[in-house]
Amino acid sequence: MTDTATLSPRQEAGLRAVTPHELREVLLAGGEWAVVDVREGDGYVVGHISVAVPLPRSEVEVRIAALVPRRSTPLFVTDDDGGREAQSVAGRLAQVGYTDVAYLAGGVTAWQAAAGYELVSGVNALSKALGEFVERHYDTPKIGAEELKAKLDRGDDIVVLDTRPVPEFNHLAIPSGVGAPGAELLLRVFDAVPSPDTEIVVNCAGRTRAIIGAQALINAGVTNPIVSLENGTAAWQFAGFEPARGSTELLAAPSPAGLARAIDAARRIRKRFGVTVATAEQVETWRGEAGSRTLYLFDVRTPEEHAAGHVRGARSVPGGQLVQATDLAVGVRNGRVVLVDDEDLVRSSITASWLIQLGLDDVVVLGVPADARTASGEPPREVLGDVPVPTVTAAELAAALAAGDVTLLDVEPSLPYFLERHYVAGSVVARRTTLIDRPDTLATIGGGVGRIVVTSRDGDLARLAAADLAGVTSRPVAALDGGTDAWIAAGNPVETGLDQPSLVPSDALVGRPSLDAHKRQFADYVRWGDEIVAVLERDGLVQFRAFE
C-alpha cells in the first residue's frame, strides 16, 4: 500500500486538478458526482463546500466504498489548499479503482478567496439548514423551556416525545420524556395520544430534529396540538432545569389501530410530497445498472429489525439519522436512493419526504414482506486497499501487555459525546495520518523501541494503519485481530471515559463541554441558523423544496 504521506513522482504527475470555476460548472451541470473533504479535525467544520461530504484522510479506505459505491463516479477531493492531503487521497482513490478522480487546485481557500464562492460551516450542515428552512417556511410551532416546565409542573395533558437515537436519549433527556427516535415517531405516535387534545412536544438536543419531527407530524395530518421544544435539552439546561439521565422509556410498537392510522398518514405524506413506491422488480433492474448509475439501499427501520432480517445489500440507516446526517451516508449527488421498509411504508415515506425537500431528486420507497428479508446480521464492511499484515490475538495481546513489551495504539476515531468509548487499558489514542505524517511521534511512546500493536473498533482501520506504519518504522508492527470488539468479546477488561492517553491533536477528541462553553457554542449555532439559509441561497448549489 502507498502510505498517506508519499506519492511517487509518476503518481503525483498523473493527478488531475480542477479549478474552482471548473468544479462549480460540473456541480451545476447535473449528472452524478461526489465531492469529498478529506481534512482531519476541525477543518471541515470551520468551512467547506456546501455539497462536500466529510471523509477524513485517515478513514478513506474504510468509508469510501459505502459513500461512493460506483467506481466510475466523477470524484473531487478537497482540502485546505489543494496540497499534499488532497493529492495523496486522490492518488489513493485512483489506486483502489476509482477511475475519474480530481483534486481541487488551491482547495477551499481558493474556492472562497480566489473565486468568491461560499463556504458553509458546521457538522451535517445541509441537514441542519433544512431544519432552519422548514421552521421559517412552514412556521413550525414551538414552545420555550420555561413554558414547558410550567405545563409539566401543572400536570397538563401533554406528552414529550424525544426524536433522537436511543443512546442519546438515554444519556440526557427532558423529565417524563419518551423516546421516539426519528422515523419511529410517526409509526408509534397514535397510541401515545389517545386524546385528540393531548399536546405533543417534540424534543431533541438542540433544534433540527425537533423541528423536523414536529413538522413531520403536522405534514402527516396529526390533529393534536403539536410543537417543537425550542433549542431542546440545551435550552432546558440553560434555564437551570435538571435533566433526566438514564431515561429508557420508549414508545411501544403500534397497535393494529395505531398502525392503521400511521399507514393512512404515510399515504397522505406520499401524495403531498410526490414519494414514489418502487417494486422489487424495479430495484432488481437498478441493481443490474449499478455500474452506470449509483444505487443506495438503506433500511430505515431500527438496527435491531435490520439485524433480524433484511433484503440483500441494504445497509442499516434508521430514517431519522439519515435525514439528520445525510452527508454521512449519501456521498453521490443525483444517485438513486431506495428506502427499504416494512410493507406499511410508514418510516420510509416520512424519510423520503424529507430527503426530497432536502433537494435529492431520485428517492423511492420499497416495502418488503417478512418472508423476503432473507439476509441477517450486518455484512462485512468493504475495505479498499486492504493488504495482509501481521496480527495478534486478544490472548496474545493480553500476555504482551502483562509483560510490558508492547506499545498499543488505538486509531479508532472519536465518538459523539453521548457514547462511551471502550478502550484497552494501556492503549494510546493515535490518528493514522498523524503517525505517518509525523513518524517522529513514535519516538515519544514506548521509549521509541519494541513492538507496536494497532487496534480500532473492529480492526479494519487498525490493519490499514499497521500497514502504513510498517513502511515508516523499523519496529515490529501488528494489528489486533478483530480489534477492540474482539478484545471485549474474549472477556478482557476495558476502560471508559476521556482519560485515555492521546497523541491526537485536541480538535479530534470529542468530550462534553462545560455548561458555559456549551452556552457559547449554542449561541454560535443559533446565529448560524439565522444566516445559513441566506448563505445557501447565495451559494446556489443546493435547492431546498417547499410543498404547500
What does this structure look like?
- The protein is an alpha/beta fold and 548 residues long.
- The termini are far apart.
- The protein has 22 helices and 20 strands.
- The model is unreliable at 1-13 (pLDDT under 50).
- The radius of gyration is 24 Å and the shape is globular.
- Strands 1-5-4-2-3 form a five-stranded parallel beta sheet.
Summarize this structure as a short list of keywords or feature phrases:
39% helix, disordered N terminus, 548 residues, alpha/beta, globular, 5-stranded parallel beta sheet
- What oligomeric state do the depicted chains represent? single chain
DSSP strand count: 20
Distance between the termini: 53 Å
**Percent range of helical residues:** 25-40%
Strand order of the largest sheet: 1-5-4-2-3
Q: Strand fraction band?
A: 5-15%
Total number of helical segments? 22
- Structural class estimated from helices and strands: alpha/beta
Please tell me what the overall shape is. Answer: globular
Describe the biggest sheet? Answer: 5 strands, parallel
Task: Please give a quick description of this structure.
With about 550 residues, this protein is of the alpha/beta class. It contains 22 helices and 20 strands. Helices cover about 40% and strands about 15% of the residues.
Detail the topology: elements first, then pairings.
Layout: H1 9-13, E1 17-18, H2 20-28, E2 34-37, H3 43-46, E3 53-54, H4 60-67, E4 75-78, H5 84-95, E5 101-104, H6 107-114, H7 125-138, E6 142-143, H8 145-154, E7 158-162, H9 166-171, E8 178-179, H10 184-192, E9 199-203, H11 208-219, E10 226-229, H12 232-238, H13 256-273, E11 276-277, H14 280-288, E12 295-299, H15 303-308, E13 315-316, H16 319-324, E14 336-341, H17 346-358, E15 363-367, E16 391-392, H18 394-403, E17 406-410, E18 428-429, H19 432-437, E19 451-455, H20 460-470, E20 477-480, H21 483-489, H22 515-539
Parallel strand pairs: 1-5, 2-3, 2-4, 4-5, 6-10, 7-8, 7-9, 9-10, 11-15, 12-13, 12-14, 14-15, 16-20, 17-18, 17-19, 19-20
